[in-house]
Amino acid sequence: MGRMTRREVLAMGRDLGAGLAAGAMLPLAGCRHGGKAAAGPMSQSMVLAPSATAVGLGSLKAHAVNANLLYGCAVDVKQLRADQHYGALVAEQSSIIVPENAMKWAALRPTPELFDFADADYLVDYAERNNTKLRGHCLVWHEARPKWFDSVVYQGNARQIFTEHIGTVAGRYSGRMHSWDVVNEAIDVKDQRADGLRVTPWLQLLGPDYIEMAYKTARAADPSALLTYNDYGLEMDDAASEQKRAAVLVMLRRLKTRNVPIDAMGIQSHLTAEGFNAAPRRYAGLMAFISELSGMGLQVFLTEMDVNDGALAGDELQRSHAVAQTYHNYLTTVLGNKSVKAVLTWGITNKNTWLNYDKRFLRGDGHQQQPLPFDGEYRATPAFFAMRDAFDGRGMVAPVASSAQEADPYAPFTPHAAGDMPVKPVVAPTVQSAPVPAGPASTLPAMPTTGK
Ligand code: XIL
What does DSSP assign to residue 378? Predict the structure, then answer.
């Protein structure tokens, strides 16, 4: 797949507009799931429907099935409780979800003595009702510590509090989780330790073996979840990413050598948008890293994908296409390795993304970032079509011969010779996608078990 030309970018904007207009008056897909307002004027004024081509067989999860992939997103449980349309969109698109915050210590531990599972339980229940797999995130992290943490936890009780938390949380949902991010973001080469470990409260309280302890405790509490190590800053072709990848590999090899139960690597995939005129990124170091992971028998998940356009000027449409191009280049590259089993975006709509409320990421010009596959009115964005096309390109769909180009519903991402036919409007796919099984979650692409 080549870069989009300017003509293709513009054509894509037109196509997208046409698709959205066609879908604008449809009842919301989610209303099939029990909503009663589908035909009423309220539903139309409250929220626009997703593009007709983006639901059912056109959804990300349906196209992911064909690519032997799970697709899903991080879910904001507060919004899930408040907005049935959001819940419908997430279920329509996702075969796997992860709580954005509801399973972090700060959410689960109002006091040192208490666990509050209300939001976490709500999400587990939602996932099961919708036949959606669930990732747990995260049992150990240096951030999202409860307010009481630093004044309560000390060397004398740290081990007990640490193992109790992991055992209680992983144990509560044992047998119901696809995977757990057991340890999140434990590597930071800037902290200058020989082992590459980030200097965190847990490292200081328990020493470097806290990592091993976490995985063993999690396995004992939930023998069937795929135990994952999750981190960011691994993706780029630069020295910082290269050093971090090397340090992660050293840690993972050590864990494997010591028979620590670990099954998967989560590559967060928080990306910045590629520049309008920049050469496409190659991700050569990342691909070598993924090969190493695969050679160690680890599955790979892209766990928190989004694309930050904060460094780009340009109008909204131009930026949304740069974001889409970034998705497309990244996913077509990374999905080339068959060990990659799941892609999750960090949120699903541009209205509800940390990039638009975390002060570190707000655009200087006051415009909204557009990092995700749907906009604030639940319409598919260029990033949606880019992801879907990348899924289709993974090889489960018969290779598209040049004569088939005309029938390609995702033509904006198909390289065109100068002067050839105009780009086709985005229409329902003619390439047949397998329907998403309506049965239990286990009928989705088989995830190897942990062997337990
Ligand atoms: C972020 C959430 O999106 C925010 O709502 C919260 O305020 C901070 O945490 N890496 C991770 C995620 O592993 O848990 C973080 O989520 C984003 C970076």
Answer: S
